[in-house]
Amino acid sequence: MTAIPLPYGDDPDTKGFWDATRDKRLVVQRCKACSHCQFPPHPFCAQCAHDETEWVEAAGRGQVWSFGIAHGPTLPGFQNLVPYPMIVVELEEHPHIRMVGSLVASPDASINSVPASAIRIGLPVDITFTAVSDDITLPRWMPRASESLKP
């Protein structure tokens, strides 16, 4: 089986994000001038164009804002996993920030562990992290413990 493609963790714009995920922390970029938070990261603030930003921790809680189901064709590393859901999460404390990710039933579950019939817009989710190499830990999302995954 072909391995899934991994992000490049040494990119100067995203290195702080990947460093934090290795420590099981979710971070977003914050402008040092206007305090605007943003994701994905940029070399400057999207609000005021200031070029000094910092990484700040986010709670890792949100809700499904949108979702889709991958059926194929996919990259070779994903061929044996279809169909699988991809979700867009609206962060609880930063509702203007939305992150794309995988929805899984448990921290070590496969990306196809949640059936499409169990996903709904507004489903509360919490972050979890899965180390996939020495350098990369992927953030993934799980339904909040209070939610059942009944189709």
Automatic annotation (TrEMBL):
InterPro entries tied to this protein: ChsH2_C, ChsH2_Znr, NA-bd_OB-fold, Thioester_dehydratase-like
Alphabetical list of Pfam families matching this protein: OB_ChsH2_C (PF01796), zf-ChsH2 (PF12172)
Ranges of residues in domain ChsH2 rubredoxin-like zinc ribbon: 18-49
Domain ChsH2 C-terminal OB-fold: 55-129
PANTHER family for this protein: BLR3430 PROTEIN (PTHR34075)
Protein name stated in the entry: DNA-binding protein
